[in-house]
Amino acid sequence: MLFAAVAALVVIIAVVLLIVISSVTVPAPKQLTLESSANTQILTWKGKAKKISYQIFRKNGDTDFELVGQVEEGGDSSFVSSDLTPATLYEYQIIAQKGHGEKVRESKPKTISAYTLPETISGATAITMSKDSLTVSWTNAQPVNGYELKYSTEQDLSSTEPIAFTPDDAVTNSNTGALNYTVPNLTVGTTYYFSMRSFCGEDVYSEWSDVFSGTVTQAVDMTGIDINKPMVALTFDDGPDSGPITDRILTALTSAGGHATFFQLGQLCERYPDVTKRIVDQGSQIACHTYDHVHMGDAVTTDDIIRANDAIEAACGIRPNAFRAPGGTSTDLIFSTCTSQGQAIYHWSVDTRDWSSRDADSVVTEIQNNASDGAIILMHNIYDSTADAVERIVPWLVEQGYQLVTVDQLIQAKTGQPPVPGTEYHSAP
Predict the structure, then answer these.
(1) What is the CATH number of the domain that holds 97?
(2) What is the pTM of this model?
């Protein structure tokens, strides 16, 4: 009897011990940390690697936790989570496990979360887009909360206090997707140095970008122009006429809130100064096309250009800063003369051949088939058929989303710099 009682007691004690042992909680990982870069996060913790394995679960946003890795018994107490999205909040759960098969026991989940860093901004530029300012431009595909920008006339920016701004303060270029932020109240002719970084969460910052620079130039008047929207430059040669044709063209432009560039003959500006003034008063650009269009190509003389500039200035009070060669052929003499006269040289990318067809339908079709952002379109303000075409094509261009700008505004908008005297432009990039 005694032996049987002792045996029963031993069995009971063994069962109790088995129950107690099986119910012992597996210790959760301790001192859990999370270190982040733009695309990787490294989890480290203190545990008993020789006896316990670990399962790592991850989620971001409203998704469910997903098993992304496991550290086996005897492994390091760390895990690398890679191929992540920059500037994104990730949350992790780590569960310690002990045993095998049906006898596996688990700890309570240990949770930690952190943002990946925003990617370092690269390829940023600073160019003049408006008066007394520089526009910083950079590409961005990250859901960041904001940016910090440092700038100075000194290249060393280490002690410069940054300014902060939000994505709402930046303008997206509809053509390239780049973001633009304009720094105002700068000094013309001065070079400024910049560095910037982005941040997400409360204090998760990218690295500072490499230092980049820009020089403030005297910008073309860009009042009312959105540099991020498509634009074309309508241009007219060989005028002005006595008034009716040019007036119809100016009226069509005014009704659309647009402007154009008129490459006029000095001789005709002398003859029709009132028409010349109306071009300037409308806000369009007056430009030079030699004095009388007698000489072309190699035959164009310095006097043909300067005499025309003098005549145009006498007629309207504006000395032209743009030139177009008769027939479109520029020579070394034209380049040198225009450089000394402070004039950029303009060719064209769309030739309507209105002088040949004398047909409004043909002109309209040519523009509709070939207009594109940055195009310079050639016409002449001396044909009734051209005025007919302009009255139809101006509202069509506006409906297509194009802004009607001068050639100088086109180059300023697309390059960030005013046109360079002595440089020939066929279109804007």
Answers:
(1) 2.60.40.10
(2) 0.67
